[in-house]
Amino acid sequence: MATLYTKIKLYLEANGKTEAEFDDRGLKIELRNNSDGSGDFIETWNVSGLAEPTAEQLATYNTAGDTYESNFEVRRTRRKSYGDMGDQLDEIFKDIDAWKSRIQSIKNSNPKS
User: Fold this and answer.
1) What is d(CA 13, CA 64) in angstroms, rounded to the nearest whole number?
2) What are the beta bridge partners of residue 41?
3) Cα of 105 vs its chain's centroid, Å
4) What is the pLDDT of residues 47-101, one digit of tens each?
């Protein structure tokens, strides 16, 4: 299940806001977890022009949030497998077709949802 952070991020974007609303200095949005088993919750919501989402509204982002988080992990795995950008440029210079083949193999091994 998608994290509260991800669902709020998607809610913000769907309403014309950005992830920058999670600004710790201005405390626009602050999430908490009391370690009592009830999970994360919104403690502070100070987003100009946008009401704090209800649990029902956030629940509508479960599927999209799961996909977002899954694809985030795929991108992280791909970046690690791609290697250093300088090394990639050297590889492209030496044999672009071998580089293309290697990158396609990485993408095939780590498909996005």
Assistant:
1) 12
2) 32
3) 24
4) 989 999 999 999 999 999 999 999 999 999 999 999 999 999 999 999 999 999 9
Outline where the chain has alpha helix (H): 4-14, 55-59, 62-82, 85-109
User: Both tokens of residue 62?
Assistant: 């479960």
Residue with tokens 């992830």: 19
Measure the CA–CA gap between 110 and 38, rounded to whole angstroms. 34
Joined together, the tokens standing for residue 38 give 């009830």
DSSP state of 84: -
Taking CA atoms, 23 is separated from 20, 26, 72, in Å, by: 6, 6, 21
The Cα–Cα gap between 83 and 62 comes to 32
Distance between CA 96 and CA 103 in Å, rounded?
Answer: 10
C-alpha distances (whole Å) from 60 to each of 30, 49, 54, 86, 89 are 21, 21, 10, 42, 42
6-54 tens-digit pLDDT: 999 999 999 999 888 877 666 689 999 999 998 999 999 999 899 999 9
